Amino acid sequence: MNCGGRTPATVRCKYCSACLTVTTGERAVQCSQCCGVTRVVRRSVRLPLLPALPRPMAPAGSFPCSRSKKRAVLIGITYADTRRGCGELRGSVNDVKCMRHLLSQRFGFPSEGIIMLTDDQKDPFRLPTKDNIRMAMQWLVQGCSYGDSLVFHFSGLGAQVPDEDCDEADGYDEAICPMDSFQKGPILDDEINEAIVRPLVPGAKLHAVVDACHSATVLDLPFFCRTSRTGNWQWEDHRPPSGACKGTSGGQAVLFSGYSDGKSKFSVTPQAYATVGAMTHSFIKAVECEPCGVTYGRLLTSMKAIMTNGGGSCNLQGPIGAPVSKVANFSGVQEPNLSSSEMFDIYRKPFVL
């Protein structure tokens, strides 16, 4: 539906009927009034066909030139002053700081191999805008080769959008919301898969940790692992009904995300430096508490126990660990899930970054 003229194109919010401006080339738009995400329907006779935008290229010097074998993109968004009546997510920036400490101290990621995008930074190329996130994802996998260990971490808001490609078993695409999501729309799982999963060559590995609502399959990986009725971790085949390829180019991608039934209440504490996200906290604490070489199955079980116990005491390591006093389940996550580009024995395969 075109409700405001042909230039710029506009659509009605699917949930509250507000008139939304559509950025040229984007497939979805987020409403600043109700936070709902509306798919841009290109087949509408009244809405002009919007050409796909070329992917933004990072200006020289905006990202590190170092091609360390260990690289990470860490994104934390508070959405300060952007969500009407919804407050902000205080824990997301802390999540990024804690994750950086874990990667540097425990797994030897060099400082020049880690990019942090948070909305409290002054450098415009370190703000988690849609364009910057796209450029950071491109930087992460560009020129990847055998032996590369890559990490993608996102702490913020997620969203669901009705699927139009017939490649989702549940009929919905998942998405992450940049800080300018209300202006430019969210980043859909199809794009994330194409950006950081498909380029992975043999011997390259990507681990992603996403602390957001609607994040269970946000990398669009074909195999999904969760607890069965017997309490064991079990793989499910989530390859798309359309037959579309969602795997890598020979490497491996693994996603730690969370399940929610949609009924849990979000917990947001207003004090700065008072919270960390529940999903990120359970991952970091489980990694810190378990011995090196812990299997994926043991790590997931430990994460689930931490979540079930409400996070316990935070006491994370690093400079931000001591001031943190509360675990904020702003994503509504109730238990962890794992998805992967390939199935493997999670009770035998060690977790290694």
UniProtKB/TrEMBL annotation:
UniProt xrefs under InterPro entries: Metacaspase, Pept_C14_caspase
Location of the Peptidase C14 caspase domain: 69-341
UniProt record similarity statement: Belongs to the peptidase C14B family.
Name assigned to this protein: Peptidase C14 caspase domain-containing protein
Native species: Urochloa decumbens
